[in-house]
Amino acid sequence: MNIAEQIRAFEQKRAGLVAANATIMQKAADAGATLDQQQAEEFDGNQADVTAIDEHLKRLRSAEKSAGAAAAPVGGQSAEEAGQARAGVRVEVKGMNLPKGTAFTRYVMALGRSKGNLMQAAEIARGWDDTPQVETVLKAAVAAGTTTDPNWAKPLVEYQNMASEFAELLRPATIIGRIQGLRRIPFNTKIPRQTGGSTVQWVGQGAPKPVGKLAFDQISLGMSKASGIVVLSDELVRSSTPSAEELVRQDMIGQTAMFLDGQFVDPAVAAVQDVSPASVTNGVTPIIASGTDADALRADARKLMAAFVAANMSLSTAVWVMTETQLLSISLMTNALGQPEFAGTNAGPDAKFMGLPVIASENIPAQPGVAGPPIVPAGSRMLLVKASEVLLADDGETVIDVSREASLQMDSSPANPPTQTTVMVSLWQMNMVGIRAERFINWAKRRAGAVQYIDGAAYTTL
């Protein structure tokens, strides 16, 4: 065997010894007893072999490094790779161009597959050569240390990097994450707000002057959280193929993005005290679409901007929020001469409409149409949001917990509190793993007129 094959063989042997010791300790813990003589001898023997293998692996890796440095490159390959290629052996060159969030997802999967055993999780992570930081983080969770120890601080920084990597992958998929200029504030911080001004008026000679007062209130964004649980079979969690990773990652991202987008822009979403915020369109009187052609769009947009002016809001830092379908229809509108109706409008990554940036998302709830005065035609909603007048509290991370021992209500609308008829399912009994994701986020309009919108928008070229 060459050096690389020896390393793989010893790593597999080491993983088997560690797993065997973990089984021994688990049996003793289940029995509530210490190790008997046979178990102790087997455990100590395995541990001694692990120590010896670790020392031998250091020597093998050192020899491999020295051989690689001494080998002369042949056509971009080392001498060993070139020899293998000539002998018909397939040489695979691994890269680090993994999808964003892979390290974080593998961290969650390792915890799930190890049933919460951090030592086994670290051994599982050792098999992912292209994400070594996962093993580093899991080892940091086992070992103790101090803040002055660089071997302690570094894994903690790597954990933060993986969590931020997941958040970075989530944000571009959401409306909130793509709006630039939102006014960020901490949770549970009171912000004074002026709601009324003093009184000033003309007075005649010798006449009394008016006395006025100012009015104030306070805005505070509490700790609101969006949370969900995904239950997977143990067989699926144990799968380490890229398709399984993609399934877990995309489901968590897509569902969180859709939920937050809908809650942010749906006018029907009202605030629930100490639970969730109202949408930014809740309580806003919309402009009803007057038609579907370019003239109607100009007239409706003029009314929308007039509402901004009436609320003493400038269009500075304002952005449009609309569906991708509506943006595409507007960008394709042409006049009788075949010229674009709205020059400069495009549906690309830097989309603009009437000189203002556009955030396009299909997660905006559609308006099915409402009969009776005023008649609202079926269509989508077009929002105009002054970003600097929307407050946002967001910790920027998604917290992940994994459990195999919990009992859950397998219901998307669980009873709160549970009753005698509530059916609880044991994850341990059903051989399943529960993964819980939580995101702390809250928002509020700084001023009432900061958001206006058109309802029933269905503009297109006739």
Question: How does this model look, in words?
Answer:
This protein is α+β, with helices and mostly antiparallel strands and 462 residues long. The protein is 39% helix and 18% strand. The chain has 12 helices and 14 strands. A 6-stranded mixed sheet has the order 5-14-9-6-8-7. About 5% of the residues have low confidence.
SSE layout and pairings?
Elements: H1 3-31, H2 37-70, H3 79-86, H4 102-113, H5 118-126, H6 132-142, H7 150-170, H8 175-178, E1 183-184, E2 190-196, E3 215-220, E4 225-233, H9 234-238, H10 242-265, E5 287-288, H11 294-310, E6 318-322, H12 324-331, E7 352-353, E8 356-360, E9 380-386, E10 390-403, E11 407-408, E12 425-426, E13 432-445, E14 451-457
Parallel strand pairs: 1-10, 5-14, 6-8
Antiparallel strand pairs: 2-3, 4-13, 6-9, 7-8, 9-14, 10-13, 11-12
Helix pairs in contact: 1-2, 1-5, 4-5, 4-6, 4-7, 4-10, 5-6, 6-7
Task: Report a brief summary of the structure.
This protein has 462 residues and is of the alpha+beta class. Helices cover 39% and strands 18% of the residues.
Name some characteristics of this structure.
462 residues; alpha+beta; hypothetical protein PF0899 fold; 6-stranded mixed β-sheet; 4-stranded mixed β-sheet; 12 helices; 39% helix
